[in-house]
Amino acid sequence: MTELLKKGGGWFKHHFAEHAKGLERKTVFILVASTILLIIFHDNGSSSFFRAHFSRYFKPGGYARLYPAFYWYGCSLLMLGVVPLLLGRFVLKKPLIEWGVGLGDWRFGLKASLGMFVLFLPILLFVSYQPSFQAKYPLYSAAGSSISHFVIYQLAYAAYFIGWEFIFRGFMLFGLKPKLGAYAIFIQTIPFAIMHFGKPEIETLAAVFAGVILGFLALRTRSFWYGWLLHALVALSNDMLAMAHKLDYL
């Protein structure tokens, strides 16, 4: 077995070593780990996974119709937020602040995120009149069952975006920047946009531009939190506008 491994290693070096020159281990680790975490989340962290494997253990009534959402959003926080944060701190051994978890330039961050949100509002209002938008949001119709359902659902939804933002604008962006510079912004935008597949086409296309904008915002502020704030405000507004249409307020 040892001899076979040596031969295999020699074969790899002979054919591929030249192409592997210059690869930096931490950069490779971040790219591979991010890909694996996104696959695991996609296949095991969805509401459909919860319905298939766990829903039978919960009684109907109360907030039960929202349990699939809670599972999905909780898995995002865990798999895309907590796990990569632990990998960055204890495997790659970089201080937490280097992953963008600090407040950074909070004065600029708040002004920029709130200012962009105000600029996006007219676009959100326009898009809210599209039938595909109204049919999509809220992602769970049970969120509109009562005010308490809506509030609790939105809190869980906000937690979802912590994991979502950290994997892209924290772990990938700040992890890849030392080696790739500002190109890291565009690299993290690719999986970010792909993860929007299945949503209305206009939203998926907009995710490309949003990924770039949020990437620049994170680098400028040295924090992923302001992207989270902007993303969460947009998501909450989407749900509120969709509910307003359903209730004939718009």
State the main characteristics.
mainly alpha; 75% helix; globular
Report on the architecture of this protein.
The chain has 250 residues and is an all-alpha fold. It has ten helices and no strands. It has helices at 2-20, 25-44, 47-53, 67-91, 106-127, 131-136, 147-180, 183-194, 201-221, 225-246. Helix 4 packs parallel to helix 7 and helix 7 packs antiparallel against helix 10. The radius of gyration is 21 Å and the shape is globular.
* Sheet with most strands: none
From the N-terminal CA to the C-terminal CA, the straight-line distance is 71 Å
How many domains, in number, for the residues? 1
Helix content: over 70%
How many helices? The count is 10
Give the beta-strand count: 0
**Overall mean pLDDT:** 91
Q: What characteristic shape results from the CA principal axes?
A: globular
Uncertain runs are none
N-to-C series of helices and strands: HHHHHHHHHH
Based on helices, strands and strand pairing, what is the structural class? mainly alpha
CA-based gyration radius: 21 Å
β-strand percent reads under 5%
Give a quick precis of the structure.
This protein has 250 residues and is an all-alpha fold. It contains ten helices and no strands. The chain has one domain (26-246).
Secondary structure layout plus pairing:
Layout: H1 2-20, H2 25-44, H3 47-53, H4 67-91, H5 106-127, H6 131-136, H7 147-180, H8 183-194, H9 201-221, H10 225-246
Helix pairs in contact: 2-4, 2-7, 3-4, 4-7, 5-10, 7-8, 7-9, 7-10, 8-9
